[in-house]
Amino acid sequence: MNAIFGSALIATLWLANPVHAAELAAPGPMNQTPPPAATLAAGFAPGHLPFSLTIRDELSVDYETFAIFARPGEQVRIRADRPLSWTDDMVMRAASPELDWTAPMQPGLSRVSLEDGEGHVMTLNLIVMRSADGDSINGYHLGSYPSEPYRGHENYRAPEFFLEVDSDLGEIAVSPHFRLGQFLCKQEADGPQYLVLSERLLVKLERILEAANSHGWRTDGFTVMSGYRTPAYNADLGNGENSRHIYGGAADIYIDVDGDEVMDDLNGDGVHDRRDAAALFDLVESLADNPLFAGLAGGLGEYAPNAWHGPYVHVDERGWNVQWGR
């Protein structure tokens, strides 16, 4: 299995980790403001631009590369903080802060360049999704989503459309430091795989990564041990039916610069153990009330190593802060 999908060991990483009851705690308030500047580890490039977009009136991004996932025919509202020119294979638009996009009816990838006139360019990878057919899509088994969203929250409503991912699309950048294929379910497939993925999760992971480098942990990315899970795969692992993983809004992550498939020695004590997950947990926890995380509230869990995996941290973007594993 290639690097996109991980090793055979990682395919069984979550067997001993059922969803903690704290994952379903009550929501709290959330807001959204731009992140502050940070002092970064030498050599780390966060991928920021001097302009930003607001997508669907709710998510602000200022990255050199970002992905937007849309339903066929969806009109995606995009606003820039200054006039930007729009260039793709089909059309060139005059500079404007209004950059609305109507998704084609055909699933697939469209690539757009946005330029501010001073040489700063943002690449948007616009991906149109495909509708599911009950508990499967194009022969790929999904399983059953809960019939009602958890406590009525819209981000817990069963998705109707999914990203279709072949080996080429799996290499597409969805943000400066993450590829689409990193978030695929570990479920076996004979053809294309399918997933849903939260754009808000991508922003949260990028901001955690930037904070990690500011903290002195020089890394260009996280290993995503578990991203999207189909409800069927999630149930096979013994996890709860309302896991954020089945909605594409969660990632189990660790830092692995040396490539040995376990968390690096983050606390510098010469041992790879739970205390390294605790160090990453503590960093993310410290950001909860920081403007860097405004609008990105979610779950945070710490996990110890066992026979199947090393230590790791769970993060998600459910909309309210809750912690477990301590």
Structural class: mainly beta
Kindly provide the radius of gyration, computed on alpha-carbon positions and rounded to a whole number of angstroms.
Answer: 19 Å
Instruction: Provide the number of structural domains.
Output: 1
Q: Largest sheet, if any?
A: 7 strands, mixed
Give the strand content: 25-35%
Characterize the structure shown:
The chain is built from 3 helices and 21 strands. The protein is mostly beta strands. It starts with about 45 loop residues before the first strand and ends with a strand. The model is unreliable at about 1-40 (pLDDT under 50).
Task: Describe, in short, the structure shown.
With 326 residues, the chain is mainly beta. Helices cover 11% and strands 30% of the residues.
